[in-house]
Amino acid sequence: MHATLKQMCLVFLGYGLSLVALAAAPLTNAFFAMDTGTRDAAHSSLESQFQLVKRLGYDGFGGTLQSASELRAQLSLAERQGIKLTTLYAALDLSSGSTNLPPLLVEAIRLLRDHDTILWLTVQNSKIKPSDPTGDANAVVVLRELAAGAAGSRMRIALYPHTGTWVERVEDAVRLAGAVDRPNVGATFNLCHWLMVDGQNLDTKLQTALPFLFVVTINGADQGGRNWGQLIKPLDQGNYDVAGVVAGLRRLGYAGPVGLQQYGVGGSAEENLRRSMAAWRKFSAGQ
Predict the structure, then answer these.
(1) In a 10 Å sphere around its CB, with 0-12 CB exposed, 13-18 middle and 19+ buried, how is residue 276 labelled?
(2) Complete DSSP assignment for 55-88
(3) pLDDT for the residue 287
(4) Is residue 208 situated within a structural domain?
(5) Domain containing 259 — which CATH number?
(6) Which domain holds residue 100?
(7) Using the 8-state DSSP alphabet, how is residue 115 labeled?
(8) Number of neighbouring beta carbons within 10 Å of residue 131
(9) Is 200 part of any domain?
(10) Gap between the Cα atoms of 81 and 64, Å rounded
(11) Looking at beta carbons, which pairs linking 174-181 to residues 24 or more positions away fall under 8 Å?
(12) Number of domains within the chain
């Protein structure tokens, strides 16, 4: 009896110590800089932006799909700088109802073969309201075909919720990824867009999204902000508890990449990125 009780106590003690160790362990998630915050007068070229991101310690670069030639340049620069092209942002417009794949997306998937870049899709449909599930059937057809091509290139697709578009909320991205039902199609949680369109029940939203969650983006923000100037700041600015968001990701065991969103933030890109990296290191260490 006493031996059994002692063994049980030791088991529970070990379990408790494991939880403490887990809570104390620094996050090892890749932290990348989105190109929304890497360009300024001093860093107008793509090459200078990649150099800046590398020098400041970011693990990767979040690019935008403009053309096949620019994508080739991004991939070349990523290789030369020894960092990853973590994500490639692109728009998929389904307003026409066509299921034909955009040629540029098809070419991008081919070029991204074996680069472990996540194709980041904002999905638009001007014919229906944001979050309206009547658009799902057409979207599923297109996304399954894209997913098949992406699987051939050994890459993933993450739906990107964006304010004012059809896939506006993280719930929309999760719903659609679930309907597509392909292991390489998932969702993104964007802090600034979530704050703009929702801002409620964060833990529940993250918990629900977790099985599909490929990417998270964060930034400094003001509690109760209603415009992008208030909702997108360097990571060390604003009074919204971003450290709490990072702590929530830790509790959930989220292991994917985390991107820094800096759309519309003025001033020096280098200073903003430097300060944001310092904040990330504190947050990821649980400070």
Answers:
(1) buried
(2) HTT-SEEEEE---HHHHHHHHHHHHHHT-EEEEE
(3) 83
(4) yes
(5) 3.20.20.150
(6) 27-284
(7) S
(8) 16
(9) yes
(10) 18
(11) 174/208, 174/209, 174/212, 175/133, 175/136, 176/123, 176/136, 176/139, 176/140, 176/143, 177/212, 178/212, 179/136, 179/139, 179/140, 180/139, 180/140, 180/143, 180/144, 180/147
(12) 1
Which pair of tokens denotes residue 20?
């403490």
If we measure between CA atoms, which residue out of 16, 29, 15, 17 comes closest to residue 285?
29
Q: What is the C-alpha separation between 276 and 262, in angstroms, rounded?
A: 10
Question: Positive or negative, the Cα torsion across 276, 118, 103, 134?
Answer: negative
Whether residue 6 is contained in a domain is answered as no
pTM: predicted TM-score of the whole model, two decimal places: 0.91
Token output for 167: 């896939």
| 91 burial type by CB count under 10 A (0-12 exposed, 13-18 middle, 19+ buried) | middle
Query: Of the candidates 102, 151, 149, which has an alpha carbon nearest to the alpha carbon of residue 123?
Result: 102
pLDDT of residue 24: 54
226: in domain? yes
- pLDDT per residue rounded down to tens, the chain (287 residues): 344 444 433 333 343 434 444 455 679 999 999 999 999 999 999 999 999 999 999 999 999 999 999 999 999 999 999 999 999 999 999 999 999 999 999 999 999 999 999 999 999 999 999 999 999 999 999 999 999 999 999 999 999 999 999 999 999 999 999 999 999 999 999 999 999 999 999 999 999 999 999 999 999 999 999 999 999 999 999 999 999 999 999 999 999 999 999 999 999 999 999 999 999 999 999 98
DSSP code, position 96:
T
Q: Is 64 exposed, middle or buried (0-12, 13-18, 19+ CB in 10 A)?
A: middle
pLDDT at 20: 43
Buried-exposed string 144-175: b where 16+ CB fall within 10 A, e elsewhere:
eebbebbbebebbbbbbbbbebbbbbbbbbbb
Element spanning 217, H or E: strand 213-218
